[in-house]
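Q: Is it fine to ask for two folds in a single conversation?
A: Yes, each is treated on its own. Send the first.
Q: Here.
A: Result:
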Amino acid sequence: MEDKRDIAVSVKNLKKYFFPHQNIIESITQSKKSTPVKAVDDVSFDIYKNEIFALIGESGSGKTTVAKLLMKLIPPTDGDIFFEGKSIVNISKEESAVYRRNTQMIFQDPYASMNPRFTVKNVLKEPLLIHKIKCTEKEAEEKIIKALDDVKIYPPHEFLERYPHMLSGGQRQRIATARTLILEPRFIIADEPVSMIDLSTRAEILHMMKEVQKTLNLSYLYITHDLSTARYFADRIAVMYLGHIVEIGHSDEIIDNAKHPYTKALIAAVPEPRTGNLHKIKELPIKGEIPSAKNIPQGCVFHTRCPYAKNNCSETLPDFVNITDTHKAACFYTDSLV
């Protein structure tokens, strides 16, 4: 059954290839053929309005490259990106400024993303200056106070003259979130926003972000390698491996009924609390490291590590199989289970 909700962001056959640098002799003589690094290779997905969409996978799978493409920090090699029905790939400088105002990003390391010489007030005021938001000093302070209030920084006035080093990790991430909210965006990309925070405060920060999303009717792209937080935080999950999406569906469907072997391996890697021998290492169903994006395997990109690989896995890229109306996976092995 086709989902009738309005689409906030639509990614169609998106590709991003990086070409290694050649020295001048190699460039003139063409003695060395340049092999592209396929960071993102034919990725498609939709993010609905007021939805939290998670993109998960190992380091090197292409998650952050997708985020940079959506933020227009780098141009795509091929494919298209639509925001509220309009392509944003080849738009004017003025249109790009409007798009960037409506699309904000929460970075992985909140301390590195802030100027250490800026007070909290200046950190939050900076986006207003960059985007040339016309407002008086009093109006700017009111926006700052409201943004701090939205992310549960209490009392907000006491934090205005503090510097980043005077804040805890959780407070810095709240300030980083407030900085995105001050421009009143409609779409937020959160690139591993709790990976630099103590485990004890992760759930608290994610709960805050979820409350903000519901209150302000925002759409989120949540990038993470942590399945446990993805299940709690996201409405839908897309599993990414070596530049490809291999499984996509509702969070509970992905976690409780994973079909792709890579998704099963990610779930198996999640630590489980248990009594007795706490030092026992879990045996994972896959071996080795993720291959280089410069030398992607033929056929199914996961077949070199897959315990269920068949002969045709190394020859043909599998199509997505419909598990349910809202759950799809790309794997020959999956097809045999449906």
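Q: Second one now.
A: Result:
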Amino acid sequence: MITETHKRDMEFHAWLNPYRITTSGTDLDKLYKLNPARLNPSWVLSYEDALFYNPENPEVIKYIATTVFEIVKKYYVDGIHFDDYFYPYNYPLPKGENREGNVANKRREAVNDMMRLVNKVIKSTRECVQFGVSPFGVWKNKSSDSRGSDTKNLESYYDVYADTLTWIEEGIIDYVAPQIYWSIDNKTSAYETSVNWWSDIVRGSDVRLYIGQNIGNIDIAKEIEKQININRDYCEVEGSIFFSMIDIEEDTGNVVEQLNKVYSCKVNIANK
């Protein structure tokens, strides 16, 4: 896959969910006998019929960093890309704790420590390899923090303990691709409102901004040309990441004609 990608003058970024073990099922014995989660049950969190590595466990942080090292060392990838899943969404706090309290802050800092270590591993192994992340499209709502976006949605800072602003401010990621998976007229997270906020956040930093766009949603697919033209009004936006390829292949919402028009090229989906 890497060879074929490079033949076409494209980059290959390895996509990972660093903490996810299963999407359903909590029986460790059903995992392969050498699966690290099965070998190290003390590393594991169980929540809503799924298993996750515990982000606060130092051995988990080392394991994730070692996995990234293996990929970067063995394969000529151009980037390591983390998805939006960190802690499970809405993972509960202990009784008596609140979302700005000691436990919540420790969770966020554990994730920050993992991100810092992964950055060091990548840059010390092959400096040219990029480190990127595609967080949920809202860091905090303005109602929670004056620095937040004018949105009324889940907040990755609180709901998955992902402090994207720290990663940008510390320069521990090379690019950010927020999942702005909403339509232009969305009532809780309007598309341009979100693009504008993220543009402001990366301005003056060395972190590049791409916009994650969900063409699997037919309402978004139908207006993707308009969304791309909005992106072009912001010089900080360097491009789009579309989810997913199957929706280009199936031409969801007439997306192929729109992409041909907006990019002034021919999208050929026959040559897979």
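Q: Anything structural to flag on that second result?
A: Two points. The mean pLDDT is 96. The chain has two domains: 2-16+55-263, 20-54.
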